[in-house]
Amino acid sequence: MDEHQLLGVGLGTVIGMVLALTGAGGGILAVPLLVFGLGLSIVEAAPVGLLAVGLAAGIGAVLGLRQGIVRYRAAGYIASIGVLMAPLGLWLAHRLPNTPLALVFSVVLLYACGRMFIRASRE
User: Fold this and answer.
1) Where are the transmembrane segments (predicted)?
2) CA-CA distance, 70 to 75, in Å (whole number)?
3) pLDDT tens string for the chain (123 positions)?
4) Count of C-beta atoms within a 10 Å radius of residue 32
5) CA distance 118 to 123
6) DSSP string computed for 29-40
7) For residues 46 and 31, is the Cβ–Cβ distance under 8 A?
8) Rg of the chain in Å (alpha carbons)
């Protein structure tokens, strides 16, 4: 196993553990770790992260279904809108330079972190 593969396994382990502990969106972790850990561009990292996180999310969804804690309506809305908007996002990602994509992703990440911090501090 070469250095890149070993680093990929390590990053996957970290992402999987954080996903399992927090339920946070794995892409929020996967994309920055793939960009800074493996040197991928955001356009390259996004589909890799989506595939890896999608497989892990599928397992989590099955477990949630078994426990009866899935909100079907919310999941349906999110999935439907995501499927419809994914081609537009992919089209834009291939036409925008990496720097603006990184800035937009950073703003979204900071917003999500802030919301999670505020919610956690209220509990």
Assistant:
1) 7-40, 46-65, 74-93, 99-118
2) 8
3) 788 788 878 877 877 777 777 666 667 778 888 888 888 888 888 888 888 777 777 887 888 889 998 888 888 898 899 899 989 988 988 898 988 888 888 898 889 889 888 988 998
4) 17
5) 9
6) HHHHHHHHHH--
7) yes
8) 16
DSSP, residue by residue, the chain: --HHHHHHHHHHHHHHHHHHHH---HHHHHHHHHHHHH---HHHHHHHHHHHHHHHHHHHHHHHHHHT---HHHHHHHHHHHHHHHHHHHHHHTTS-HHHHHHHHHHHHHHHHHHHHHHHHH-
pLDDT of 52: 78
Q: Which amino acid is at 114?
A: G
Query: Would you state the structure tokens that stand for residue 83, as one six-digit string?
Result: 């499927």
